[in-house]
Amino acid sequence: MTTATYQVTGMTCEHCAHAVDEELRNLGGVSEVTIGLNPGGQSTVTVVSDEPLTADAVASALDEAGDYQLAR
Q1: Judging by DSSP bridges, how do beta strands 69-70 and 2-9 pair with one another?
Q2: Per-residue pLDDT for the chain (72 aa), expressed as one digit of tens each?
Q3: In the chain, which end has fewer C-beta atoms inside a 10 angstrom radius, N or C?
């Protein structure tokens, strides 16, 4: 098991958080997603998975969920 924390921009409400949670859980091996919503700022997203996820996989899941991006 591995845990990774990402800073995500664009999330403004619980609906956003739910969409991101759902798309990340669709990635293979993801067992848990925890979101610290910060409307209008950078939200903290922690993902527990069997293997480390690539930044591209996480970015693609965020894109599928809506207009959300990894903070740079």
Answers
A1: antiparallel
A2: 999 999 999 999 999 999 999 999 999 999 999 999 999 899 999 999 999 999 999 999 999 999 999 997
A3: C
The two tokens of residue 9 are 């921009």
* Ordered DSSP codes for 2-71: EEEEEEEES--SHHHHHHHHHHHHTSTTEEEEEEE--TTSPEEEEEEESSPPPHHHHHHHHHHHSS-EE-
Q: Distance between CA atoms of 12 and 29, rounded to whole angstroms?
A: 27
Give the separation between CA 15 and CA 53, rounded to whole angstroms. Answer: 24
> What is the greatest pairwise CA distance in the chain?
31
What pTM value is reported for the model? 0.94
DSSP character at residue 72: -
